[in-house]
Amino acid sequence: MFGFSLLSFETEAQKPNIILFLADDVSWNDLGCYGNNEVKTPNIDRLALNEIRFTNFFLTASSCSPSRNSIITGRYPHNTGAPELHTEPPLEMISFPEILKQQGYYTAHAGKFHMGKYALRGFDVTNENVKLNGDGGEELWIKTLQNRPKDKPFMMWYASYDAHRPWGPNEFTGTYHIANVKPPYYLADVTGTKSDLAKYYTEITRFDHYIGLVVDELQKQNILDNTVIVIMADNGRPFPHSKTRVNDRGMKTPFIVYWPKGIGKKERVCNSLVSSIDIAPTLLEVATAQIPQSVQGVSFKSLLDNPQKSFRNYVFAEHNWHDYEAHERMIRSKDFLYILNSRPQFANSGPADALGSPSFQDLVDLKTSGTITSYQAEVFLAPRPMEELYQNISDPEQVKNILAFPAYQNDLKNLRQLLSEWMDVTGDDVPKNLTKDWYMKDCGTMETSEFGRRGEMPGEKRHATQNNNKGKF
Questions:
Q1: Measured between alpha carbons, how far is 144 from 253 in angstroms, rounded to an integer?
Q2: Count of beta carbons in the 10 Å neighbourhood of residue 360
Q3: Domain-by-domain residue ranges, the chain?
Q4: How confident is the model over 386-413, as pLDDT tens digits?
Q5: pTM to 2 decimal places
Q6: Is 3.40.50.2300 the CATH classification of the domain at 17-313?
Q7: What value does the CA radius of gyration of the chain take, rounded to a whole number of Å?
């Protein structure tokens, strides 16, 4: 099932180097080149003048380890065998760095890992830094680049802890003044939330700073032009309404590709729908490596040559246990987003770290005082709709559920059927005994009696790890 070829038709010197920068809990619109006027990301923005910036790139999960395992294998979370947070795929799973390693690449990881033992096989060197609060492992990036063997192409997986909570002081503390921070409409416009956002922005600026140092080192080594640089995040910002959501605030990621030798030097924008399961086959094709049958994604290398080309018609994503019991599935086209929630009795207030944040407490205070808006209060809603439908063009914030509108019944029927088919052919299911809440939902810190216990994984009974079906494209 997981076989692959070791044949290559390029010399080692001709093959492009690859660096994947992976931010932790950063939303797609929290970078300057994506229109955020508050966050300072000068190094990423500078690359944006000579890169392809994707505007419709979607993750398969708004949850750290399920998303990362999906990226590195090219498989949906339930097909990796690790659809829940802090779970690991089986050892027979294969990652794209492992394939590149077998193809003669030097592969190194530095920063956050969070994927499992199977993924360790893919790296010649792993440097995991588990310290938070201002040290996200980025100090290791330059070292791995300097200490690499110079006679091999390389693939570097640089995974930041920025901007995962908790946040502590770092070299950019004080960059953002609370008075200048404007919270989005779904958060409270008060001092606690503004301070929370200012610290979050500081983490993003730190991530950007270290990307700049890596680019400088690539220039010093005279290898920048033949290096494919990918910049992205694993899920949405760690605030209520974002992380763990299957809408755009949770699933949409910034995605930037910089490769002077391969795609030239000019700013281009790609609006095509792309899924994070498409990253693995794309980088394998770039490296002229064979794509194994286990990969469910499809290479989008053609978009690097022609960003205006159409690609996917649909992307799929899922939300399973992340501190709290959950089972949501979504299908998104350019026009519509359809959500199926198999646990509508529960509110989706966010992950435990977001519930323990000042931003969540400020929403609680607004609710208590009766001054909360209807959409701010949505994080407390229980029961929730079992189904949701949004028109992405007229409602880009996905606020107005049009599920019952007569004009959209044909669209609803089509998306409902497509999602059901995708779940069926990829071996997904809805177990009765899902993992329960590990934390109290009113604070995100106090453990429940279910803490540490796992239920049945989605796809487990249907042997989804052995299922390579890609589903609709």
A1: 26
A2: 26
A3: 17-313, 316-466
A4: 999 999 999 999 999 999 999 999 999 9
A5: 0.94
A6: no
A7: 21
